[in-house]
C-alpha cells in the first residue's frame, strides 16, 4: 500500500467514529501536510454506511497542529435531503479538537453545462524537471511536482505576481479519486513566499474545495497529472487568500479551491 | 430600527444559545434571503462574551429552507488560540437543523500588505438607475442595487459571460460592519440565470467569505456603496460555483467570497 492510501486507512470504532494515526512520511513543518488531513476527512465521510451522493463541497478548518500519533474522527450527518447531504466532521487527539470540517455530498444529474474559464498554457509534464523540496519537507516525496510558473523562490527574488502553476501527481502514481483531489487542493506553498522572495511563518487556517467533477470524470483522469494553478487576491494584516483551479490532463476543470492563510512578515 | 438590524436582533437564552425570528421583509422565493441568515450567524458569534478577535473566514451551509417564525442558534467556540478562534454554529427550528456554519475569528497585526487584483471599471452609482426586483422578491427593497454589468436577463437573452458587477448598499443606508458585508456576499442572483437568459430552480448550498478588511477599514466605508463583482467558473451536472469580490468605494478590497449553487436546467 502506498503512503497516500496508508494515511487514509481508518479503523471504524463506533457509529460515526473512526480512528487513524499520523505517518512520518506526511510530516510538514508543524504536524502533517494539511492536504492529507483534508483527504482523510473526506474518506471518513465516504466510509459511513449512510453516505448519500458524492463530494460537492468541503470546508476544512485547521484549529491546531496534529501531533504525531493516533487521532479520532467523529462524523455527523446533520441533514439528509433527497439530492444532498450535509456533514460536520471533527478530528481530535485525546479529546483536544485539532481540525473541523463541513461537507456537502450530493447527487449529480444531467443539466446544461459549460466551463467558462480556460486552463493556463503549460508544456507537458515530461518536458519539465521534477521539483525537489527546497527545505527537505518530507511529504513532498509523496508527489511528483513540476513547476510551470512561480516555483519556490529559492534565489530570494520577490515576484510581482503570486501565481504558481504546476503539474502534480501522486508518487507513486495511483488512480485519482475525491480524496486525492482533495489533498492536491492544498499542494501550493504559501503565496506570500513568492511575493516576498523569502520564507516566513505561514499556514492555512481554512480551505474550501468545490468538486466540479463527478466520480466518472475523476476516474477518467487515471493516475495522470493535474494542472494546478493558484493566486492570491489580497495580503493584509497577517492574512491572505488563495484561489486555485485543478485541471485534468484532458482539460476538465476538476475542482476550484480557496483558502485563507495567516502569515508573519 | 431598520429591517437589517431588526433581523439581527437576537435574544440571548442560555450560554451559546440565542433566539431570533424571521421577518417578512427578508423573504426570498423559499425562506429568507441567504445573506441575512449568514449575517445573523456572524452577529450571533459577535454577541458571545468569550469572542476573540474579528471575523476572518466564514462558511455557511444551507441545509434546508428556514420557515417563517422563530429560530434557535447554538454557537460553540471549538478552539481558542492566542491569535484566533474557531466556531461551529447551528441554526435550527423546533430542533430541525436548517443552517450550519464554521467561522474563524482572529486578531489582525501589521504585516507587509498588497492588493494584487484591481476593481472593475464602473461609473459612479449616481450615474446608474436603481434596479427594481424583476419578480417581486421582497428582500430586494432592503438594498439599493445599481447594475454596472450583467443585470438580470429580463429580456430572455443568454450571455456568454457569467460576470455581474453592481453597486450595492443597504436601504436605508446604515454604517457598514462585518454583518452587513456578510449579507452583501450573497447579493448576486444565480449565475446560471445570466448564462441561460432565463430563470430556473437554483439556490446556494454553501458560501464562504474571507474578510480582508478589519473593523477600521470597514467603518471607513461609512454607509457607502460596495462594488460587488461575481462570476462562475464551471457549470456541470446540477452545480456551479461563483467567485466574487466586494470593493469599497475607496478602492479597498473588503472581502472575497465563493459559493456553490445547485440548479436545474
Automatic annotation (TrEMBL), chains A, B:
Please, which domain of life does this record's source organism belong to?
Bacteria
The record, for SUPFAM superfamilies, names: Thioesterase/thiol ester dehydrase-isomerase (SSF54637)
Gene3D superfamilies xref list:
Acyl-CoA thioesterase, double hotdog domain
Annotated ranges, domain Acyl-CoA thioesterase-like C-terminal? 129-262
InterPro entries of this UniProt entry?
Answer: ACOT8-like_C, Acyl-CoA_hotdog, HotDog_dom_sf, TesB_ACOT8-like_N
Q: In what residue span(s) does the Acyl-CoA thioesterase-like N-terminal HotDog domain sit?
A: 23-106
Name assigned to this protein: Acyl-CoA thioesterase
